[in-house]
Design a protein that fits this description.
By secondary structure, the chain is mainly α. It is built from nine helices and three strands, in the order H-E-E-E-H-H-H-H-H-H-H-H. It has a three-stranded antiparallel β-sheet, with helices on one face. The longest helix is centred in the middle third of the chain and has 19 residues.
């Protein structure tokens, strides 16, 4: 058990980790961790940033201006605070429309294939479709969790089922807890 705690600690603090980590608890109580889940019973507990996140940081200001109108339009269309969209996009991709995570999330709002399909996004690399689909998803999460920003943001990161499974609270995943703090700090920043 101590080896697992040490392994997870190393994974959480390592900046070189480039794979999502999933956890599965078997019926006999054994806990399994992997970066390649075998089925949907494995639940993601750590999600890494896109591979090129650090490389996008120097261009973040320019890209933020480039996509500001698209973000404002999606915010207006879906009645979501544009500052929240900016916070999520900055946390997810640093405004890099070409961002790709090791788990397969793509674009400014890091849409996974299932989420993209759910919201009619045909081309996740297209900033217009990506922002619109991600904004619509965020709107639905806010509605699902009675406008509770913490829960909606946690669900955007870990999935709504993770939030529901944890009695409508932020899941006890360090990555998700940190994500909520980061997005809220960015959202509350004056800019």
């Amino acid at each position: 058990m101590m080896r697992i705690a040490v392994l997870l600690t190393i994974l959480l603090i390592s900046v070189e980790v480039q794979a999502d980590i999933y956890k599965f608890i078997a019926n006999d109580g054994r806990i399994y961790y992997t970066d390649k889940p075998k089925n949907s019973l494995y639940k993601r507990i750590i999600r890494t940033r896109p591979i090129n996140y650090a490389a996008a940081l120097p261009y973040m200001g320019t890209n933020k201006k480039k996509f500001a109108d698209l973000i404002a339009e999606a915010a207006n269309r879906h009645q979501v605070d544009a500052r929240l969209l900016h916070a999520v996009i900055q946390a997810e991709s640093a405004y890099d429309a070409n961002a790709i995570s090791t788990a397969g999330a793509v674009g400014l709002m890091q849409l996974m294939p299932d989420t993209a399909r759910r919201y009619g996004v045909v081309n996740r690399n297209d900033p217009v479709q990506n922002i619109d689909g991600g904004t619509h998803y965020l709107k639905d999460l806010l509605k699902m969790f009675d406008s509770n920003l913490d829960l909606a943001v946690a669900a955007y990161n870990a999935g709504e089922n993770a939030v529901i499974r944890h009695n409508n609270s932020i899941p006890p995943y360090p990555e998700t807890q940190n994500y909520v703090k980061i997005v809220k700090a960015l959202y509350n920043r004056r800019s």
